[in-house]
Amino acid sequence: MEEKDSVATLMDSTTSKIQQLQKAFAELESYRAVTLNMKWKELEEHFHGLEKSLKRRFHELEDQEKVFENKTMKAREMLKKQEAAVFAKEQATLQRLQEKRDAATFSIINAREKHRKVSQKDLAIVSNGGQGTSCMEEKPMDAVSNVTEGHIEDVKLSFENGNGNVDLVSYPELLKLCQEMDTAGLHKFISDNRKNLAAIREEIPHALRASPNAACLVLDSLEGFYCMEVSSHDIKKDANLLGLRRTCIMLMECLSDFLSNSARVSNLVSKDIKERAKAVAEEWKPKLDALDMDASNGNSLEAHAFLQLLASFDIASGFDEEELSRLIPMVSRRRQTADLCCSLGLSEKMPGVIEVLVNSGRQIDAVNLAFAFDLTKQFSPVTLLKSYLKDARNSCSPGKSGNSSPTAQVHY
What we know:
Number of strands: 4
Distance between the termini: 67 Å
Helix content: 55-70%
Number of helices: 18
Oligomer: single chain
Radius of gyration: 41 Å
Strand order of the largest sheet: 1-2
Order of helices and strands: HHHHEEEEHHHHHHHHHHHHHH
Shape: elongated
């Protein structure tokens, strides 16, 4: 604005400048010795033409400035309207979510009220094995579910954890098995309830708080992981053994979750337990030498269990990092791989592991690990996926054996 005012002031002063120039020109003519070919009238017309041209251009610029200001004002008004519309949509969405949450809460309360039909007397009879009744402290229950065939299923029990908070356990039998350090019963309970495995997986870390020695319980549960009665050729066909091995891995993962959320980790895993866990790892380690990385296709339960054992009991420091990193391609398809590598301190070894996966034609596993460890600049996902697609097309082309096609790499 200040610049525009200064330009207008200069333009207004042109008239006075022309008058001054006229006087100077007249004075010059009075002293001339010869007649000048150029007359003042011509100069005056020239300067007035320049003045008009400048004023016209100045007004054009003013008009353009006004047009720009109008467009800017309209754009700001439109932006405010759009912001108001987005805010209104957000509020409407939050309102709908709140209504759904209130409806879900109401449904849960109704379901819990229906489960209160079981009387405290019935619970006392069940707890005594049907041998009469026992006195129970009269207090409200959080939730009670069905009582069938002499046992209670899905009863919500509460107990205080190490942080002073109260957790709910949906499976009292699971809590009892942990209290009694019953590893055989724990395996059987998980096997019998595999259809609810996700819910049980969430409850086990809470139930481990009731165990006198959670680390010892999980370590004892690993017995039988390598069954001598089953040959290596028949392992994949033995559903029971495969189920047992998956259960062992899950229990070790739950122990890690339990320890990570406990304020007394040093007291929970004693030196003796770590020595026992290290002995188990030393016993398992030679069995991994017979594993074929290509045959396992990145989904080896044996390699996963060994690495999880080291991570759960914090004994990885007693083993060579190079040897551990060579096992990673055997578990590259499993969803826990990235967390395992971090727990075992193998993050710096990941470029070499990814290189092995790329060279063995497992580009999708390589891409997943590259993203997990922020190595996408070194290993371009686009390049790796293009290479994978090229290999897939070549393997599916006429004349190629059907068995040579890349195995679909799916993470579990």
